[in-house]
Amino acid sequence: MEPLLGVKVGCLFSLLVLTLVCGLFPICFKWFQTATGRHRRVLSLLSCTSAGIFLGVGFMHMTAEALEGIESEIQKLVIQHKQ
Question: At the top level of its lineage, which domain of life is listed (predicted)?
Fold first, then answer.
């Protein structure tokens, strides 16, 4: 396995474990089980924040790979145009 691929798989696994642990964490507390009023607002805010973080990370990851592909295609077009 290539070193970079190993790092990506390791990060993916650790992100999965961290997500599961943090997602199941509220189940352990009675404060979250009887959520009303202000508690619901806090839970909603935390949910929205986590969703925004995951969307941002996902888009950032896709953007980096897309820019790699675009760079190689632009270089091909420049070489073809010069000929």
Answer: Eukaryota
DSSP code of 64? H
Give pLDDT, residue 49.
Answer: 86
Amino acid at 51: A
Tell me the pTM. Answer: 0.45
Instruction: Report the Cα 18 to chain-centroid distance in Å.
Output: 12
Domain edges within the chain: 2-81
Q: How many helices (H) and strands (E) does the chain have?
A: 3, 0
Which of left, alpha, beta for 37 (phi over 0: left; psi -120 to 50: alpha)?
A: left
Q: Cα dist. 34→4, 14, 40, 53 in Å?
A: 45, 30, 9, 26
Rounded Cα distance, 44 and 75, in Å: 46
Number of Cβ within 10 Å of residue 50's Cβ equals 13
